[in-house]
Amino acid sequence: MTQSLKRILLGDWGLVVLFIVAMLVVSLLVPNFMTQRNMLGLLQSVVTIGIVACTMMFCLASRDFDLSVGSIVAFTGMVAVMASNATGSILLGLLAALACGTFVGFLNGTVIAKLKINALITTLATMQIVRGLALISSDGRAVGINDPGFYQLALSRFLGVPTPIWVMAVAFAIFGFLLNRTVFGRNTLAIGGNPEASRLAGVNVDWMRIWIFTLQGLVCAVAGILLASRITSGQPNAAIGLELAVISACVLGGVSLAGGRAAMTGVIVGVLIIGVAENVMNLLNIQAFYQYVVRGVILLIAVLLDNLRSRALGRRG
Amino acid sequence: MQAFLEFRDISKAYPGVKALQSVSFAVPKGSVHGLIGENGAGKSTLIRILSGDAAANTGEIRIGGEVQHYASTRDAYHAGVAVVHQELQLVPELTVAENLRLGRFPASGGVINFRHMFDDVGAKLRDIGIETDPREKVARLSIGERQMIEIAKAVMIDARVIALDEPTSSLSSRESEILFKLIERLKAEGKIILYISHRLDEIFRLCDGCTVLRDGKLAAHHESLKEVSRDQLVAEMVGREIADIWGWRPRDLGEPRLVVDHLAGERLKHPASFAARSGEIVGFFGLVGAGRSELMRLIYGADPARQGKVSIDGEETPLGDPRKSIRNGIVLCPEDRKFDGIVQGRSVAENITISSSRHYSPGGLLNFRKEAETAENFIKSMRIRTPSRRQDIVNLSGGNQQKVILARWLSEPDVKVLIVDEPTRGIDVGAKAEIYETLYQLAEKGLAIVVVSSELPEVMGISDRVIVMCEGHIRAEFTRADFSERKLLAAALPDRKVEPAARVVQ
Ligand SMILES: Nc1ncnc2c1ncn2[C@@H]1O[C@H](COP(=O)(O)OP(=O)(O)OP(=O)(O)O)[C@@H](O)[C@H]1O
Ligand SMILES: [Mg+2]
Q1: Are A168 and A275 in contact (CB under 8 A)?
Q2: pLDDT greater than 60 at residue A1
Q3: Domain B3-238, what fold?
Q4: Residue of minimum CA distance from atom 8 in ligand 1
């Protein structure tokens, strides 16, 4: 009995099973949880984490790490607002933000792959540099949006579902496809499994890493734009601590920090778990400060699960 | 016979694999007992059970008549069992002495007495014939030296039963000699040594008795090897007769395909030049550390070259980038499968097709059907023992991992030059014969093939020409007509050293 329970929980679908059980329990116990309105609100709240988790998954799967995502999200949000205010064109603002995000990602990737500097250190540095740039450019204050058209990005709906949720869903689909169906995804996992063997097998490891980080930058810009639109301004202090929430979501979703193992479904569930936890706490009127504790506990559980799972998976050899 | 170590009815199953099925045999005190069988026969699994690293589903182990119940490797260790695993388990960033004393540091009040530790370990190592400096970091040792340290670890805990899983697969002949002497000594002290090897000459030389496993079952058990012939053991292992393992046949040689011109790099200081013709199999012989692998890595671009040129069919190829080399038709099957070969955590199919899948992945989209087909073909033709192509490669036996890495390069369609570094390390006799046959067929198709091997009989058995390296230099070259064991060895040995006994396999 315990044996088969263990097998289910640590197996491929263990997380999904856990999640469904948790959803059932929560929807029975917490009033107003299973309403359409609350569900959409819940999804809205995880849009940033969800979008960024897509590329973070690739990063972790290839044994890398990116701490700069929160800063890039804030910075690109600022850029989008300031550039569209300055030019009077939302489109130009968005393009500028995407270009900036992509550039920072490209820089991360190039430094890590070509100069062979540890990803943790590199992104720790860019995390601070980029946050600094966001603060400098706005003089530390929030920048309001001039053109109300900008709000529409977050407010508009398609088939009754807000656009940001659609963007997140599309990102899930694209990156799930990329991971499972393409040589790019395969090579990402191979690099995570054994970088040297992959290089000798003809995988262009440097090029792959640069691409992964560049994509990460681009995706952060998308998240940054949507966030700015939702909070109707560019906030230099937005998305602080986002990197940790995103990494938690990935690890919770079965992405191995040792590289080589990742699944899009897992990451989606990981993102939703974090969303549900926060949503429930809000519904139950639990003070915001407690949410930090809960996030930490969730992360610990995630790492523990990862550990148990790789131990259950087999031999050291 | 006074049985001391007894296996009774041991069975072990993994998902989809019956690794061991009701295996029983016994070994007397003060003897060396061989354990042989094909790749995936269950040898390492049995050793893992003995060492408490895996739990048997049924059966029991008795030592000195006492039933052993281990919950962990620590229990086995306290029961006097030491194991040297097929894959090495040292901590690379620690020194030799620290590795040997891990978990048992000589300390007072938590402070390690390093001087004492180094002196003590140094003395013990010298006593068993190992010259390595105990202060050296393990990461800087050659594979052979690391293997010796592993063995020293097992000896130094004064175990009653010592199991060695393919200990000589990465040792030079001199190191092997040291090991053999050590084994004789341990035997005289009344220990039991379980000895796994695919090299039957070692079995005959060292072992008193021998057990043969096939497909996880006991195929034969010999208390003495006096009356047993080599052919009989082979037949018991593979279940059929193998007439001539080498099966060399003459081929027509074409134009020079691979030309290496004054190539040198960081770890191969002296420039090396040689050529290989289309249809030719060139063997590279030398002692471990002679610079053969370094040269091959330079040709393939695994390491950056300092000087020199490599050309294929008269056209110069760029150096220093394995990816370009593959596209120009040079591939290298590396020596160290654990670090340079297998991609851990990924499936057998992915490991086979990691490079060749690009040929049928238009626009980077994977073709699962083609991938599965390729993988299944190689699993069948190379008889890779795995429950399915989706199995994680780390769950395969050592020899079967090696086959997967070979399959990776055999699945590349446009190879012109195939370099294989120790291609049959850890591979059983039956599979060896099949791999040689594959090499001949590829040569007949016009490939130039370079085989690096430390096994003299193998080099002599399959090469059309042998190049001998010694201390980073190309020393000599022999055509098949004037091969002799003596000449090759003489060329391989540095002048000042005394000649060690040749390793004669087959
Ligand atoms: N952790 C594991 N999970 C799944 N299968 C396993 C695991 N460990 C071993 N096996 C399987 O058990 C069988 C026996 O493996 P074992 O390593 O004992 O073979 P072996 O005789 O040592 O072979 P070799 O000569 O190649 O080293 C193989 O088919 C292998 O794939
Ligand atoms: Mg084995």
Answers
A1: no
A2: no
A3: Rossmann fold (3.40.50)
A4: B395
